[in-house]
Amino acid sequence: MSDHHHHSNGSGLSDKDLFETRCLSQYLQSKIPTNYDSLKQSLRDATDKKNSSKIQTSLQNLTYYKVEKDILDTLLSIISMTDDKKILKLAYYFLVEISAYRTQINNSAEIKNMITIFTKEMNHKDISRKVVSLKTTAMLAPNDSLVDSNIMEVISGILRKVGEDPDKVQKKKGFFSKVSDLGRERALLQYACFVACRNRFKNNPSLFMPIVEGIKCTDQVGARHAVQLTLDYAKENVSTVAATIKRFLPLLKANKGKEAVALIDPFARRSFIALCGLIAKQSSPADSKDFFQNICQSVMDSHTAVWCCAINTLCKFPWKTLESGTIEPISTTDNDTPSYYDPIGNVTPLLVGISNRIKTGFAVHISSHATQQSVPFTHMACKLINSLSQSYVKHQYPKDAAQNPQVGVWTELEKSDPKMPVHPFAGLTAAVTSLLQISPNISIRVQALRALVWLCPSSLCPAARAFFDIFKAQLYEPGHPILLFRELFGELYKRIVETPILSPFLLQLVYDWIDIVPHKVDTSLVRQIWETILNFGLEGRERVLQNCFSVMDRSIHPDFRVVSLEILKDIVFFLGDYANVITYENQNNSTTLAVTDNQALNSIILRLEQYAIFHPWQIRMTAIDALAKIAFLSSSAVRIHIYHFLTTSPNDSHGWTSVKSNNSTIINIIDQLLTLRSKWLPLLKTINPTQKKELINDHNSLTLQIGMFFDSPPTDYYPIGIETKQLVI
Amino acid sequence: MINSITITNLNGNVIFSKYYNTTIEEKQLEFEKSLYQLTKDEWIYAKSERHLVADIGGSIVVYTNIGDLMIFLVGSSDVYDELSLSDVMHPISECIKDVCKKKGVTELYLIEQIPKFVLYLDEVIQRGHLDQIQFESISNYSLLKHDKKETV
Asked: Would you say residue A324 lies in a domain?
């Protein structure tokens, strides 16, 4: 914002100064004696007077601030008049900062000035000025055809020679004193071009070939930018990129001794793996084969971040592909092998190779001394184990006819089934578990637990029980924050979606969670788990109801009274929403069926009725609402029962008044439901148009009143009865 | 991309912060607050330049302690995972130690040296893209001495 927007408040400080600062932080401003506006002024004065030392001081002091576009002019003047490298670098630094406002630069004089300076700088004998000017102008200059053509001309000029061997052009006049430096100077200029392209000419078709060739750039950072640019091209046109870069794949026999590239920069190798991943995923099997193999070979990269990146990329492929993948032998004595590979003697199944790599990594990075552990590695490794194991579990778990995960038989086994396939990463379980003991870092524990969730066998066997014992043990750790449990149970939730068989273990753990650390429970997550298990057939519904009842009926430690009431309230609410789903009760059940015939529903109603009388008023309110929801969705027998309860329940206890008001609304609605049903049922067969209109009105009015009690209105719901369906639609 | 770098003192006061994504200022303050709250208890484990990791709101954070400063590097997890941020943290730590080499890494001295530090940082990260990672290049390029011979 420019100065004229400031309003003085009479104390000399503008309103804006009072509330915000252009300083990098408020705290920093409190530590330094300068302020932004006066610095900007002194920079202008010093520039007008061409006072180098003052320019430098002002620029240095301005580095404490976020600068605005209005110093652009001054900066351009400084660049055009100084030869002092310190001042130049500072000026260019601020131009990069100002590039954030590039779209606001629209003054034609400024643009012209920019081009003039750019042209002058690119003809300067100093390589640094060329590099920094090219990089910065590409970032800063606004979208303008004249600017574009100027920069493009320079870039094309430099990149035209990108594939050439520097030795061949050594005879040309260079700017460096020694002829041998010529190659390096060109590589630097190429590097500047690639940075410029990343900021200005992404996916420009005319630069495609020189940029792809740039992967061979001898400046390693330049090569990295070229790989990144190629990745951007691949996102638009994967087949052309695949065909063009195949010859660069290292370790591919056909490329040996030819154009295979060795990317020394580990970040360039990571981007190259991402590029291969994109091509391998999106190309035809024949085209993708070599690129996929290159990722497999990168598992043997000696740089930890690179081989982890390779495994991470592999995680995106289907389990079947990984299962059949191999790592081909790598000989480090072969001159064609880039120096950054670790040797491997035999053809190794990919999954074995990955497992060994992570195991070796753990051996190096896990130690009982906290100071020797590499947190980033262990964090990453656990994430990789999580992804890979998820992929395996999803693939291996039996599916039903509709290709959904089988619900299975929920009986806990005494012995493990010897026919159960062994988890391919089972060998890593001990190392991951040990992290829970030795790492004080919560994020490591979270990742370790998330990995263990998927290392657990898909069976109710003792081995799986052992995993759940580990999870339960976490509940007793006093330092564990709620966040850790949210992550753990969130992951377990994902697990039972894929392998419903583990639901009984999870429900037991949910009970423990609520019982042991109720103050660290996320009830919305518990609800989500219950909702999912409800879908797993009769067994699922019964177990969820059992789980709710165990939680409700347990004795509560006095310390947890308040927090447990909150949880209870949420369970009562849940029962109101799901009682009818759990117990198969609905409005269309025969009216002759006595309410006592549905025992499960009975026990829910009984508990809710108790809560509606004997608990603090918040629970009572929720219990009454829950009963109301059940009544609305149930058959007349249940409606009458609940109506009776609500009209006769005691009304003399403390706080009953507030409950009472809610109560009367509900009684009124149930009354209408019962009356209107008995009114309309005999008339339905001989209904006339006027009556039909009236029926629709009644239907709509009831649906509206009942809708207020539900977060999402019940679907396919006919308050007066399913018999009205044809008439009210 | 690399989303931001934040340097605080051991009380959590922000000495330096730079955002490369388009987060608005209000959100930046909010983010810094949750960064502090979610990591503060573990700062003691970041001693001797150990790199720690935190996941905050879909971003991944690698942080460490140098002298009486905490340095936080935040990346969007699709490109910059914990290991690559840790690799980026190394040259940044070197830069901080270099600018503070005369008097040691203290809050006050870093504040004094910010004009030099920002020029170093400008060579490491530009607009969220990683650039130079070799300290020698960072140091030479920040002085506009691209022609200086590198010792390999």
From this structure: yes
Give residue-wise pLDDT tens across range A348-383.
999 999 999 999 999 988 766 666 678 999 999 999
CA-based nearest residue to A225, from A265, A281, A181: A265
Q: Quote the domain boundaries for residue A257.
A: 237-350
Longest alpha-carbon distance in chain A:
107
Q: Is A25 on the interface with B (CB under 8 A)?
A: yes
Lowest mean pLDDT among A172-186, A256-270, A286-300, A367-381: A172-186
A-chain CB neighbours of B131 within 8 Å are: 195, 221
| Residue A161 CB-density burial (10 A; 0-12 exposed, 13-18 middle, 19+ buried) | middle
pLDDT tens for B53-94 read 999 888 999 999 999 999 999 998 678 999 999 999 999 999
What's the gap in Å between the CA of B101 and the closest CA on chain A? 19
The ipTM value here is 0.96
- Please report which confidence band the pLDDT of residue A319 belongs to, taking 50, 70 and 90 as the band edges: very high
Strands B52-56 and A326-327: unpaired
Separation of alpha carbons A547 and A554, rounded Å: 11
Here the tokens at position A512 are 């423990």
Is the Cβ–Cβ distance between A694 and A676 less than 8 Å?
Answer: no
User: Contact B119/A89, CB-based, under 8 Å?
Assistant: yes
Let me know if domain B2-142 sits in CATH 3.30.450.60.
yes
What tokens does A320 get? Answer: 């079947």
CB contact under 8 A, B16 and A195: no
CA-to-CA separations, A662 to A625, A720, B86, in angstroms, rounded: 8, 22, 58
CB-closest option in A28, A90, A375 to B15: A28
Q: Identify the closest residue of chain A to B53 by CA–CA distance.
A: A376
Contact B145 A85 (CB under 8 A): yes
Total of domains in chain A:
1
Question: Does A302 map to a domain?
Answer: yes
Contact flag A25-B50 (C-beta cutoff 8 Å): no
Contact B13 A25 (CB under 8 A): yes
Closest to A594 measured CA to CA, from A638, A628, A630: A638
Q: Which of residues 415-444 of A touch B (CB under 8 A)?
A: 440-444
* Minimal C-alpha gap between A305 and chain B (Å): 5
